[in-house]
Each structure stands twice: as structure tokens, then as C-alpha cells.
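Translate structure to sequence.
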């Protein structure tokens, strides 16, 4: 570190953190590709690799001559400069606490944390193999073993250790990259449309900010809009309903439908439903789970069934996990639902194969569900 400062001098102004992010991304992709090549090597070659020294410093030292023979001098110089610039950013952040005390240390830690979040999220956005879209079927409750009416696309991030999608979306928001991450999820989800039964729709989740963006409009313009449903969570904050309503109106002209997710959760009340007039209202999991033991929640669901019928919306119950809850929902005339009772989310081939098998051999007890 000291030698580095003597060679380059004190940085007069810290470089943008994006420079450090970009450098880490490049090297992460490089080593991802190295790993992919190794996995395709013949067995004898892979076994020989197992005998090499696993120490990182030793391994890099052993490959110096290889790099020297394969990298042009200009590239070596450029990489060295990039690393020096990245170290300058890190050192400038590390030096601030000493000069500014506790407040400076906290600011530096926040800056480093923002950098880490941005690197992680950008890696997810740019490295397609880290993002996998799973499907969960949406079924008619009085005939749940029939072909699903739709499938919800749910993002899963193949990272070690595994972390749920809400964590990644939260990080993306903190790093200012939620819009980019959501668009990546939508693009990945739309590749699954052709795999679905012809009568089924695909539901994707986006925030209001992403829904009104020109990029989202361009993406869905290339997809069969009449087979798409966009779910906007009730928890999302909408600062300007008028612009959102206008954009939704344009998308509806092409056949796209809107769903308000998590209805009944209570955070945003039912303002989304009243302002956006969705074609689909999805009842929150916490309202549904255990409903057969709670008369208050059952009464609320029955009132929502009546409300949906009056405004011409379709009602879907989320989080159905027990036969008792299913019976209660059928008695309340809730038409559609999804949940672990019917299928867990999974990769598209697995879920679709499972549904075809279930349709040929219905599970015991399915016939006991009363018709709504």
C-alpha cells in the first residue's frame, strides 16, 4: 500500500465507486468463464488439476509466465493502472475515519457497504446464469388438478450462500439498481411464455417505477401482451397515480392485464385497488393462511368476493397450504388460488412436468373439494 502511494502520489479526488465496481465485475466474469472451461475438461485433465497447489498466491505465482506470454504489454499496463485506481478509491475511504473520527468512520463504512451492494447486484444483473426464474401455477380452486389458468414468475438467485429474492431486491434498492434488477427478471421470465400451455398467462412482478419506464414498455412490446399479467404489490408506494394509470391504459390497449398483489395486507389499504382498477386482485398470504380457524378473516374474504364481482375483477388467494383452508375458500366462492398445497415454485420444466403428471393422476382427496 505504501509503495503504491509513492508510485502514484496521493489521489486528489476519489474516483467514482463505479470504477471499482466495473473492475470487480470484469474479473468476476473472467473467473466464472475459467470455471466453466474447467468443468468441460476431460476427466484426466480435471484429475490433474486436483493435484495442483490450491493456495491462491501460489497458484497465481505459478501462472505469471503464462500471463506474460498471453497478455500484450499494453493490456498488462492498463490492468495495473486499473488496480492502482481501485486501490486509491479504497485507501481514500479507509483514511477518512482517522481524520473525521466516528462520523467519518461511519460515512466510510456506508460508502464501502454501498460499493459492496452495487458490486453484488450488478453481478446478478449482468451474469445471467446467477438468475433463474421459477414458476408457480395459479389454479381454479374447484378443479385444482386441471391445467392452471396462469403461472407466476418468481426470481431465484443462485448464489452461495443462497439468499431469498426479497433480500436481493432490498439490496438493489439500496444500491439504486432495483429498476435494472426488475427488468432483468422480466426479460428472463418472458423467455418462458412459449413453454406454457396455450391457455395460460404469465404473471411478472414489478414496482410502479419500473412499470412506467420506457424500458419496460419496450420489453413487453415484443411479447404476447394478451398472455401477460403485471403484478404490483400493495406495499409499493405510488407517488403519482395519474401517470401510472395513463401508462397502464396504454399497456391494456395491447391486451396486458394488471394485478394488485398482497391485497389485504393492510400497509397501503386498498388504495391501489381503488385507483388502478386492476383486472386481478390477489389476496395476501397472511390473510389466507389459517383462514378456516378465523371467522373475521373469512368474513373479510367473503366481502372481497362480493367487491370483486361488483367491480368486474378476478380474485386469487395466495398461500394456500392446507385442505381446510381450501375448503373454506371454496365455500366463500373464491375462484382461483395458488400455494404449496398445489405446487411449490420451481424451474419451468420441473413445474410443467409435475402438472402434467398430476392431471393424469389426481391426488387422493382432490375430488372432495366442493364446487364453488
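Result:
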Amino acid at each position: 500500500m505504501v509503495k503504491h502511494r509513492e508510485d502514484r502520489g496521493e489521489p486528489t479526488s476519489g474516483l467514482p465507486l463505479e470504477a471499482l465496481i466495473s473492475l470487480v465485475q470484469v474479473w468476476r466474469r473472467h473467473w466464472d468463464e475459467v470455471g466453466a472451461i474447467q468443468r468441460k475438461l476431460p476427466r484426466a485433465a480435471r484429475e490433474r488439476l486436483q493435484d495442483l497447489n490450491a493456495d491462491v498466491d501460489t497458484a497465481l505465482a505459478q501462472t505469471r509466465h503464462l500471463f506474460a506470454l498471453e497478455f500484450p504489454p499494453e493490456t498488462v499496463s492498463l490492468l495495473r493502472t486499473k488496480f492502482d485506481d481501485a486501490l486509491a478509491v479504497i485507501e481514500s475511504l479507509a483514511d477518512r475515519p482517522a481524520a473525521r473520527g466516528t462520523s467519518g468512520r461511519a460515512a466510510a463504512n456506508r460508502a464501502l457497504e454501498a460499493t459492496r451492494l452495487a458490486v453484488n447486484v450488478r453481478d446478478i444483473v449482468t451474469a445471467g446464469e446467477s438468475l433463474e426464474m421459477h414458476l408457480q401455477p395459479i389454479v381454479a380452486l374447484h378443479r385444482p388438478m386441471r391445467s392452471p389458468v396462469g403461472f407466476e414468475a418468481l426470481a431465484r438467485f443462485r448464489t452461495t450462500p443462497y439468499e431469498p429474492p426479497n433480500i436481493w431486491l432490498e439490496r438493489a434498492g439500496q444500491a439504486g439498481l432495483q429498476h435494472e434488477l426488475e427488468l432483468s427478471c422480466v426479460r428472463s421470465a418472458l423467455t418462458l411464455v412459449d413453454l406454457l400451455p396455450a391457455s395460460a398467462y404469465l404473471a411478472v412482478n414489478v414496482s410502479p417505477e419500473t412499470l412506467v419506464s420506457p424500458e419496460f414498455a419496450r420489453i413487453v412490446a415484443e411479447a404476447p401482451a394478451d398472455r401477460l399479467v403485471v403484478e404490483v404489490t400493495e406495499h409499493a408506494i405510488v407517488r403519482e397515480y395519474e401517470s401510472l394509470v395513463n401508462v397502464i391504459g396504454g399497456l391494456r390497449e395491447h391486451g396486458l392485464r394488471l394485478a394488485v398483489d398482497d391485497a389485504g395486507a393492510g400497509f397501503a389499504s386498498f388504495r391501489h385497488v381503488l385507483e388502478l382498477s386492476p383486472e386481478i386482485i390477489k389476496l395476501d398470504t397472511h390473510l389466507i393462511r389459517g383462514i378456516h380457524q378465523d371467522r373475521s378473516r373469512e368474513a373479510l374474504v367473503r366481502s372481497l368476493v362480493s367487491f370483486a364481482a361488483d367491480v368486474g375483477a378476478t380474485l386469487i388467494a395466495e398461500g394456500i397450504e392446507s385442505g381446510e383452508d381450501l375448503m373454506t375458500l371454496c365455500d366463500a366462492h373464491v375462484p382461483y388460488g395458488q400455494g404449496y398445497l398445489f405446487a411449490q415454485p420451481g424451474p419451468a420444466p420441473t413445474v410443467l412436468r409435475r402438472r402434467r403428471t398430476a392431471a393424469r393422476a389426481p391426488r387422493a382427496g382432490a375430488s372432495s373439494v366442493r364446487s364453488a
